[in-house]
Specification:
Isoleucyl-tRNA Synthetase, Domain 1, seven-stranded parallel β-sheet, 18 helices, elongated
Length: 512
């Protein structure tokens, strides 16, 4: 069997409800995996929730409930619903409180313990509860975590340690041989620099925390939350419970993370896998932060915006389009309501939405809703066909490289070209002259065939609106099964198809 193309999001922490920063990552993974599916590839897309650790334990107590009750409530009322809000088509949702995860985590760490990669020792040092991370003195700014802007806590415990330092050379060798294993390049440089700065063994358990997975050899301690959570990427696909499934899917092809958790995923995680004798991920991609008012979006700083707030105003397709179109994936990007409204109006309502409305309306008006066959193609028609092939090739190459903004721009360029074509060919003028009937047929077919290709190319980005376009063109085949590699082959739309004018794809925004 062919190995599945495996994509993961970070496993999201459930101490509070999700904001658009979480949704941004999930949408990126969703667009990538939908695109891959439309390339006829076997795909597996994983997301989930991290439910253990000090922060969850304290938050639950502050709310007067047990940690499991707190997690259950948030997962069912906030984290799973947001996947529907943004139209994510994930294949699995892993909770770290699940039995399959516990079994896999305990198997993994017992393996490392048996192989001599774990030892017991005292630990004393700074700990950020917000990050759930032991900090180095150099990580702090005025004694505070720079990410959460809060003082750290000094911990003194007897814990078990993972022999991280012994994997320094192996990690450096791996990244020298596989520079594509961490992207973008700035993230790669950061990881290599961190490793060269010297790795220290790290505590993999906690004795002062009760909310976690007990160590299989010492039930008085629990697995440190990060060394529990990272394992979700393998426990979700059968590690410790279903060996054939695991072998079919692992290693991950793309692991999406925010840049603030890069160290865990590109240093600790591959070292853990090396210790277990497991293959390493093909790529860890660290995207930038979403900024609001110049600051990283944060629940603790009350700058988190719920995805519902945006989707309620603009719709889920516009949400997905905007964040991947407006922000270069891998770099920080600022969000503003004004910029989103401007792009929505110019690129979606006046661009794609207007094209779809005009195309179908003219077929209904001039040809009774029956798509005509084309006559001889003129130079303008042939130029549009050549542009489609070029734009489709450019979009495919960019999407495969996780360069979503470039991929979307390639499709938008074609939409803009078709709108210009409509204006220049003036089908409303051709319709008044019976002698131009064949030319009108060709123009109408060219516009609708272009719209067919646009629907296929944009489907991974905007599944709802493209499904409406597809239906309005009278297509019966599954849109999600249309291969993007074949989208530029001209003439796939059958003449005689029944075309209808559908509802507005992107309604005008209400002005306050």
């Amino acid at each position: 069997m062919t190995k599945a193309f495996y994509v993961t999001t970070p496993i999201y922490y459930v101490n509070d409800a999700p904001h658009i920063g979480h949704a941004y990552t999930t949408v990126a993974g969703d667009v990538l995996t939908r695109w891959r599916r439309q390339r006829q590839e076997s795909v597996f897309y994983l997301t989930g929730t991290d439910e253990h650790g000090t922060k969850v334990e304290r938050t639950a107590r502050e709310n007067g409930v047990e940690p499991q009750v707190w997690c259950d409530r948030l997962v069912e009322e906030a984290w799973k619903p947001v996947l529907q809000t943004i139209d994510a088509a994930n294949d699995d949702f892993l909770r770290t409180t699940s039995e399959r995860h516990r079994l896999g985590v305990q198997k993994f760490w017992q393996t490392l313990q048996d192989n001599g990669h774990v030892y017991e020792a005292d630990f004393e040092g700074p700990y950020c509860v917000g990050c759930e991370e032991f900090k180095r003195p150099g990580d702090l700014v005025d004694g505070k975590c720079p990410i959460h802007d809060r003082p750290v806590e000094m911990l003194h415990e007897t814990n078990y340690f993972f022999r991280l330092a012994q994997f320094s050379d192996a990690l450096l060798e791996h990244y020298e041989r596989h520079p594509q294993a961490v992207e973008p390049r700035s993230a790669y440089n950061e990881v290599v620099s961190f490793i060269k700065g010297g790795l220290e063994d790290i505590s993999m358990s906690r004795s002062s925390v009760g909310w976690g997975i007990p160590l299989p050899w010492d039930d008085k301690q629990v697995v440190y939350v990060w060394f529990d959570a990272l394992l979700n990427y393998i426990t979700a696909i059968g590690y410790g419970t279903d060996a054939p499934e695991f072998d079919q899917i692992w290693p991950a092809d793309v692991q999406l993370v925010g840049k603030d958790i890069l160290r865990f995923h590109a240093v600790y995680w591959p070292a853990m896998l090396m210790a277990a004798g497991l293959p390493l991920p093909e790529k860890v991609f660290a995207h930038g932060w979403l900024l609001v008012g110049g600051e990283k979006m944060s629940k603790s700083k009350l700058t988190g915006i719920s995805p519902d707030q945006i989707v309620d105003d603009f719709g889920s397709d516009a949400f997905r389009y905007y964040f991947l179109r407006a922000i270069q994936f891998g770099q920080d990007g600022s969000f503003s309501w004004e910029d989103m409204a401007a792009r929505y109006t110019a690129e979606l309502a006046n661009g794609l939405g207007n094209l779809a409305s005009r195309a179908t309306a003219m077929v209904v008006r001039y040809r009774g809703g029956v798509l005509p066959g084309p006559g001889d193609y003129a130079n303008a028609d042939l130029a549009l066909q050549e542009l489609l092939a070029a734009c489709a090739e450019r979009a495919d190459a960019a999407m495969l490289q996780l360069d979503f903004s470039t991929g979307i721009l390639a499709i938008k360029d074609f939409v803009d070209a078709v709108n210009v074509y409509v204006t220049e060919q003036e089908p409303w003028v051709l319709a008044k002259d019976p002698a131009s009937a064949e030319r009108l047929d060709t123009v109408l077919y060219t516009i609708c065939e272009s719209l067919r290709a646009i629907a296929v190319l944009y489907h991974p980005v905007m599944p709802k609106s493209t499904a409406k376009i597809w239906e309005s063109l009278g297509q019966q085949a599954e849109l999600a099964e249309q291969p993007v590699q074949d989208v530029g082959r001209w003439g796939q739309l059958r003449s005689g198809s029944h075309v209808v004018k559908g509802e507005s794809l992107f309604p005008r925004l209400e002005t306050p």
